[in-house]
Design brief:
The protein has about 100 residues and is mostly helical. The protein is about 80% helix and about 0% strand. The protein has three helices and no strands. The longest helix has about 35 residues, at about 5-40. It starts with 5 loop residues before the first helix and ends in a 6-residue tail after the last helix. About 15% of the residues are buried.
Length: about 100
């Protein structure tokens, strides 16, 4: 361990923890949106599911981890293609 000022070292640790929490919060938000989208999918709510998967796509694009971003975006693309046709057939409340 190098001889660093204790104040600087404490600041470094605080910044690292803050970055970790920001990443966790972001992924927790994505997890919440994903659960909501899947619940609407199970309920056969095509408009709600489609909109939630769009929201999930937007949130996933903000992820730092390229691997997580790719995995979620490919999952969402599959779901959106499945629900797009149904969404376009129904009369959505907001267009």
């Amino acid at each position: 361990m190098s001889s660093t000022n204790p104040g600087v070292r404490l600041l470094q640790i605080t910044l690292i923890l803050a970055l970790c929490l920001v990443g966790t919060h972001s992924f927790a938000n994505i997890d919440r949106i994903e659960r909501q989208a899947i619940a609407r999918e199970r309920a056969r709510d095509c408009e709600g599911a489609y909109k939630k998967f769009l929201e999930l796509q937007t949130a996933a694009r903000k992820l730092r981890s390229a691997r997580q971003r790719r995995n979620i975006l490919s999952f969402v693309a599959t779901k959106l293609s499945k629900w797009k046709r149904c969404y376009e057939k129904c009369t959505p409340s907001e267009r």
